[in-house]
Write a structure and sequence with these properties.
Elements lengths: L3 H10 L4 E4 L45 H4 L2 H9 L2 E4 L6 E6 L2 H10 L4 E4 L4 E6 L5 E5 L2 E4 L5 E2 L9 E2 L2 H9 L27 H16 L5 H16 L7 H13 L4 H14 L3
Parallel strand pairs: 5-9
Antiparallel strand pairs: 1-2, 2-8, 3-5, 3-7, 4-5, 6-7
Helix pairs in contact: 6-7, 6-8, 7-9
């Protein structure tokens, strides 16, 4: 019997903002419009997606402590398909130092003050009381998860929560932006469409493009795949009604090139996405 729905409800009732996660640790999209993040949204974004539902439907922003939401038919169906429970650390008032390998754990033991720890598949979560901005790769094998982020619930762990130390806050401040080559302008024709425009207002399209740019910009790895999937999501949502312009496409290409993608790869990824959608 799947105990995830019962566990999730219990956690919510105790004040932990929860959300269902897939087997690959990605969050569910809890409305059809955002299924597979077709809305162009990114799971960790502050704005969770231009969906038609009355509340955020995916990513950290969907995490809730409301038992009526957690036990609703829509969420119950998702919990039954879920493979694990996620939660929003910032919403719970904590910060997780995610240590992804033994070397990172050794570093924490010699650098950070003791606190509550949870064993993960690859290392440990060190959890502190207090919130801060979330930052990936602050050093080798170390991510910080707090505001606008989510993590897997792996149990209460051991030890007592300590206050968030300045040494952890400093990790986020010291992380410098990587040096990138200046993006080169690339022009591809915008798709022409005659389908009925589904956008409620220009803001709908603008929000989708902005979120797609952010999804590419924040990709910690697998940039090629992220770029292609983002192009695919944008085209799926906005490519058939004629609203997508070359200026919008240029913004996506600029974001991709800022992550190190070549102009040729951008063009190829866009072409492959249009082909996959039969456009």
């Amino acid at each position: 019997m799947n105990s995830i729905p019962t566990t999730a409800l219990g956690l919510a009732e105790h004040g932990l903002p929860v959300l269902p996660l897939l087997a690959d640790k990605r969050p569910f999209s809890l409305c059809r419009a955002c299924e597979g993040l077709a809305c162009g949204g990114r799971p960790n974004m502050a704005t969770p997606g231009p969906c038609a539902c009355p509340r955020p439907c995916h990513g950290w922003a969907a995490a809730t402590t409301d038992p009526t939401v957690v036990a609703s038919p829509q969420w119950t169906a998702a919990w039954r398909r879920a493979r694990t429970i996620g939660y929003h650390p910032g919403g719970a008032g904590v910060t997780i130092v995610d240590l992804d390998n033994p070397a990172a754990v050794d570093w924490a033991r010699t650098t950070l003050p003791p606190t509550a720890t949870v064993t993960t598949t690859r290392g440990q979560h060190w959890i502190y009381r207090g919130t801060m901005r979330s930052v990936n790769a602050v050093r080798a094998g170390v991510d910080i998860k707090s505001a606008m982020s989510y993590a897997r619930w792996l149990g209460p762990g051991t030890g007592t929560l300590a206050e968030l130390p300045d040494v952890v806050r400093a990790l986020a401040e010291k992380k410098s932006a990587p040096v990138r080559l200046a993006p080169r302008a690339v022009t591809v024709p915008a798709p022409t469409g005659s389908g009925q425009c589904p956008h409620r207002s220009p803001t709908y399209l603008e929000r989708g493009i902005a979120m797609a740019e952010q999804r590419i910009t924040n990709a910690p790895s697998a940039v090629h795949t992220t770029v292609y999937r983002t192009f695919l999501a944008v085209l799926s949502a906005h490519g058939r009604c004629g609203c997508l312009t070359e200026a919008h496409i240029g913004r996506l290409f600029t974001a991709a090139q800022s992550k190190g993608e070549s102009p040729r790869h951008c063009t190829t990824a866009w072409s492959n996405a249009t082909t996959a959608l039969g456009m």
